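Pasting two entries for a bug report.
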Amino acid sequence: MTNAGIVDPVFAVSAESLPSLPGVAFEVIRLVEEEEVDLDKIVATVGRDPTLAGRLLKLSNSPLFGRTHGVTSINQALMLLGLKTVKMATISFSLGAALGGGAAAEGRGEEFRGFWRRSVTSAVAARQLVCSQRPDLEDEAFLCGLLQDIGFATMLHCGCPGGGFSPRAIDAGHPEPAAEQAALDGYTHADVSAQVLESWGLPAVLCQPVRHHHDPDGLDANASGETTQLTRVLNLAHDVATIVTSAASRGPALKAARDKAGRWCGMDAPAFDAFLEGLTEDVHEMAGLMEVDVGSRDDMAAMMARAQEDMLAMAVGATRELEQTQSRFEELRTKAETDGLTGIRNRAAFDELVAEQWEQRVSGAAQTPIGLIMSDVDNFKVFNDTFGHQAGDEVLRHVAKTLEKASRSGVDIVCRYGGEEFVVVTPGAGYEELEAIAERLRAAVAEMGVATADQGILRVTSSFGAAWLETIPEGMTTSHLLAVADRNLYLAKAAGRNRCVVSSYD
């Protein structure tokens, strides 16, 4: 289909067969848009259609406009509603006649009921969604919401074949786009809807949102703010209609609607839930004014109740999913920072932890000394060659546990540095305390025995080199302190092993 009304014969909708508004409706629209509006002419024109006049009176007395009876004349109704609302309402109330009424729907009542159910729900939802940000667009939002799916009704009205336009498909949020385009030779029901509006002479600010209500990103980059706002609202209103009309598609629509309501309308989850709760009554109020069948209040209320249950389940599910994700993240992080052989922190964890301790002191967040102790199992290569790697691994596991047990619980940080080397971070320890910790660690390893099945009790010793720093000079890094600790470890080994060498950083 094109904007010029040339329609592909695949789905047999021609410009001549598009639904037309009654003459009275066209006349009202023309009069409202004149530069010098003549209220008397509008009143007289509306009076020629008693059904339209009655509906406008009902609308002006409706709770939707905060009124409970009192408006008794078309003149009063026009003054209360305003010309723009009268124009939009006239089009809305004329839809039944435009689609041919009951004759055209003969044998297809459920299909048209599905159309009205979605359309009125979308219209009311769109009007309420836009009012908090752009109350000046309420009438446009309502009309666009009502007409965004008129392409379906047009094809039903014209007796178009198949295309997946079943009541179930329409209520479920429409056929799959690919199937729809295949049936309509590359076009969609939104294209048909937009052409109907264009054939009625409606402005682009209404036609473009309808054409793009399933694809807000497809709007022209130069589209006006009003067009963009209406297109997004229609897209969200479509999801809302799916929530309250389709059990099968409710879950995905609910998730999408909540996200869009937050991004586009500034509505948090509680506000969106409250919005949905109040929708049923307003939809049936408007359906009554339009004298269209949207199904029973009970059915719609039940659907809404199930939607509320789904929202609660989603909230609980999201919380559980977040907890599971966080738990899994912690598991992965722990695994990444844990040495697979000894079960203590690994080199990567040491690098991160010592960097954190360093930053605290550089920034002034911590004003205490810091010490590093490096240890190395003495003659470990010879031990491995003599007793085997399995015995060597068991010794390393015992050394790791012994170092953790002999260090200050909850304060010192013990890590495997690599091979048979271990490192201990001692935050806040004074110089003498660092000496005492290093000696306690050395003695604990020397006293340790590793029981084996075939080689009896195995024993090893370790050498220790420690470096202490009271305050961090400008420009100094952790590598400088590590270098001092490593130098002292070398000195301990050179002096005969199984001993400690401790010094402060000079």
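Entry 2 (this is the one that rendered wrong in the viewer):
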Amino acid sequence: MTPENLIVERVEPGIQVIKISRPKALNALNTATLEELDEVLRSASSDASIRVVVLTGDGEKSFIAGADITEMQHKTPQQATEFAGLGHKVTKHLELMPKPTIAAVNGFAFGGGTEMAIACDFILASANAVFAQPEVGLGIIPGFGANVRLAKFVGLARAKEMIFSGRRVKADEAVAIGLANRVFPAEEFMARVLEVAQQISRNSHSAVACAKRILNESSESVGLTSKLDTEARAFGGLFGGGDQLEGMTAFVEKRKPGFEGL
């Protein structure tokens, strides 16, 4: 079945580019998009002709502008936990599949966007890329893996700062703190990303897959499912509370939230 919210391209022999394509929503992730990603990534994982997977956003403005708040706004705790679990299925594909996965961040990477990026093996950023984990401003926590993965990129203290404050991190700072590997000019971004993907694809696929597995094991990806399950339950547990309802209602109404606190 042809995905409605993704553009899937084989742009080079052995390189698959997956573009999130919901332009009216700045490529925000809803349930349908996550289900399509799950299917496409599962297929790519078992396709011997694919050596490298590149995840990016359609257009020049946004990689993934988070999860779709209008869909999440009225979820029950159980529904929210299941939604986080679906996000975790996708991020586990990106992290654990034997193929190298590259996040080509070409604009806004907010919330679930940063979480999809850090599930990939590494991040290449356009000069206009902006990262953030703004969930606390909505009365919730990150639900697609940032509580588990972000510190592996930027260290625990910086991960706490990003998640607690929700502040935005531009491309140059992302490289400086270890979140992104490299920054490329926007006008030549995808060409430069594909150069990196080509360099990887020319190497031994079995050796690269073995290296990915060993590197993941050494970086404590063992036990990942248990950690993500804990996050999903904590994420879902905040739904239906006053802060979550106020935070997301304020977002939809384009006003500042009035949180009551503990």
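Dev reply: Rendering is fixed now. As a check, the viewer should reflect this: The CA atoms of residues 98 and 206 lie 9 Å apart.
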